[in-house]
Amino acid sequence: MDTSRPGRPGAPVTIGRVAEAAGVSRATVSRVMNGLASVDPELAGRVREAAARLGYEPSTVARSLALGRTGMVAIVVPDLENPMFQRVLHGLTDAAGERGHRLLVAGSNEDVREEVVLAAEARRRCDGLVLCAPRMGTGQLAGMAAKLAPFVLVNREVPGIGAPSLLVDHAAGIRDIVAHLLALGHQRLAYLAGPPTSASNRDRLDALRGYPAGRFELVELECGATFADGHAVADQVLRERATAIVAYNDLVAFGALGRLHELGVEVPGQVSVVGFDDIPFARYTTPPLTTASVPQVELGHQAWHRLWALLERRTPEPDVRFTPRLEVRGSTGPAPGALRYM
Amino acid sequence: MDTSRPGRPGAPVTIGRVAEAAGVSRATVSRVMNGLASVDPELAGRVREAAARLGYEPSTVARSLALGRTGMVAIVVPDLENPMFQRVLHGLTDAAGERGHRLLVAGSNEDVREEVVLAAEARRRCDGLVLCAPRMGTGQLAGMAAKLAPFVLVNREVPGIGAPSLLVDHAAGIRDIVAHLLALGHQRLAYLAGPPTSASNRDRLDALRGYPAGRFELVELECGATFADGHAVADQVLRERATAIVAYNDLVAFGALGRLHELGVEVPGQVSVVGFDDIPFARYTTPPLTTASVPQVELGHQAWHRLWALLERRTPEPDVRFTPRLEVRGSTGPAPGALRYM
DNA sequence: GGTGGCTGAGAAACCGCTTTCTACTCTCGG
DNA sequence: CCGAGAGTAGAAAGCGGTTTCTCAGCCACC
């Protein structure tokens, strides 16, 4: 069989075959395909015609190797099923897509060891990395920084490793939430704690503990980051006689809400519930969830801008710390029997 | 500066540098790194030591080019923010991850033109593709089949293009839903239709229309696939005096639920609501959503198995059509004023 | 002791594209 | 009329791996 015949079934269409078909060198085909330099219009026409006829599509892998960049960025998140991260992901894909970049995603399932491996591997396949709320320790992260660069952090801050950070002021969010609950007369708050590895969980906890003593009683309950965690811990809240729940995130709040409903406990009549993040579901449930709203899609956008700057060796815009906006909805109300109000 | 010195800051560590440092050929380093053939243990030791000392990590891009495979698969979905797709994605990443494959994700935002472009581009960057509920026409899909292969379809079927399909028996799901509602005495059902481009929407609509005449009145309302769509259309349902809502999916059902609640309409007292998919939120809302449960994570797993088989040039397992399981929860109840029951 | 088979490692080709370098042609000015 | 300079396209050297091919060395066997 004549292996030089164009369009032979099994043979992949490479730049060489196009060059051959157009009667030019591979270099010229490359130039035409990239719209580079000035090529004789007639030659360019022949090349384009041949490329179209053969259905030529340059190999992205070969280009990546030659160019030293892949046109892909990776994002690593702790929990693929958390809409919070999905929205960040969405913001990121859209922004990156506009610049012709595609996204590799990896979920660590809250496992630090897996996270470390995934981050390193994902980075090697891409030009850059977005680490979303990484669970690994600061030391470990700092140690990997050189290997991972360029990368940007979302919901995490590690000074001195030269990675841009996009932050949420969890403390401010917590302060707003607590102020809201105190105004409603709540005196005994249960905090449903997130994963101990979560930096934002620590921020929130610190903010709660840092409140002037005597303003309210704080009950700290180990919980987690998912529906099921919130669902499982609700009974304990009741046993502790807290009148308000401050959940690590919206998912946990939903879980608790569901359990309370099962038990016939009225929300907010008997217990108020507050979430964190403001995932899209929060406004559509019954009752709608009071929560600290975090600009999730915006985080994704901003993450891309920082990463894009790094990829182009520009100086990224300075770090931002977003202040969550308290969305007061139906899941919070006056504490039972309380007379205080704002 | 001596460019041959190992570990020189700027210089990337390539296989050549390792070979040089270990005093062997690049071929030998390659063999050692891949655990291939038998290499003199002493040489292998030297290579491993050098690789470790230099922090060598083979370039995935170069490997991809040489091997002709990337170790990545892509998934294209219409809506990145729909938990249904996120769960499929989750199932897929986990299953693929076990075989050392990473995931490229792309969301078409329900735009057919974008979907076509994304699918083609994503495929070129990866070894295979999963098209999740593709919106493009059958002809177009068939036309691209050769370019996209190997790929597998989820929630879509196009006979004769040689792509494995994983299906959900939407008609059966609808039949169960309708039977359930009829038993509760509902006689006027509103169907909140999904995107016209959605094949599963057509399946559901056909199943509804195909019901024996006279069993119930069907009100078809154009809607969409998101919260906001369901939220916006709820008023129309009331105007039409339907006593039950059959929503295109859970998201739409939630939106409608939220709006009904805002309006003070009792669910299921005045209106019953049924979703489709059974996303995790469905069981935790108030009232919990009655819905046709689709094994989302399983779809992801199965998609990987089919794709993996194709990648290995094995024959994939035959297509599967999953039958949804009706999850009766709190959002459905007797039609107002109805005496009928099962 | 010569030869055949076998093992193990290096040389070199190759994957498909980009880009520098080089050679050639053509134009224009002195 | 000749040489400099601009413009164009091809040759070839990468990019960083893998793999075939080749060959040297060793052992065993006749």
UniProtKB/TrEMBL annotation, chains A, B:
Q: Which SMART domains match?
A: HTH_LACI
Cite the entry's keywords alphabetically: DNA-binding, Transcription, Transcription regulation
InterPro entries noted in UniProt: HTH_LacI, LacI/GalR-like_sensor, Lambda_DNA-bd_dom_sf, Peripla_BP_I
**Where is the HTH lacI-type domain positioned along the sequence?**
13-67
* A Pfam family of this chain: LacI
Signal peptide position in this chain? none
Question: What domain of life does the native source organism fall in?
Answer: Bacteria
Which sequence ranges form a coiled-coil region, renumbered to this chain? none
**PANTHER family, per this entry?**
HTH-TYPE TRANSCRIPTIONAL REGULATOR GALS, LACI-RELATED TRANSCRIPTIONAL REPRESSOR
Q: What is the protein name given in its UniProt record?
A: HTH lacI-type domain-containing protein
